[in-house]
Amino acid sequence: MKRVAILISGGGSNMVALAESMAGDHPARPVLVLSNVPGAGGLARAEAMGIPTEVVDHRDFKSDRQAFESELISKIDEYAPDILALAGFMRILTPLFIDHYAGRMLNIHPSLLPKYRGLDTHARAIAAGDAEAGCSVHEVTAELDGGPILGQARVPVLSGDTPEALAARVLTMEHRLYPAVLRRFAAGDRTLVTLP
Ligand code: GRF
Q: Any residues with Cβ below 6 Å from ligand 1, and which?
């Protein structure tokens, strides 16, 4: 059975989708939910599901990213995870952290990568007049939002869409795509998942 640590910074809806999916014949189980934001909504949701939680507040380390990440690594490794799933974890990670978990760390990004790396993905898709948008699950490498893509889900961009409306439509697909990719990844299968 693979052990999965989930890193969050906010409400944790993807974390809940992942944790709920890891049941029955799923090859993995959640062993930790960690946030860099004390009081993040996802922490209470994880505790309600009986998953251990931890907080490592990046602000305690000011601009010393190495010190923050060293503390992050030592806290996470107390739970000996096989896989890390970044789920709305809003810190840019350095090679110190990425190399330590190389080949076993996933992230979900709300665009059809390689389009729209970074922030404000939905506003950028609407501004570009794209007919479709979506989300991607990729392996985390030193290239921000640039690692190998393991899954993608597409949704239409509707006329009159606001970034918020599009984000809500994409989030629904995120909650299907991320669990589907994690199930394959935990079984050692990196075949691309495409939805719908
Ligand atoms: C998601 O849209 C994810 O793609 C992005 O941040 C958001 C996190 O949402 N990186 P939640 O905390 O999982 O609800």
A: 8, 10-15, 42, 87-88, 108-110, 135, 171, 174
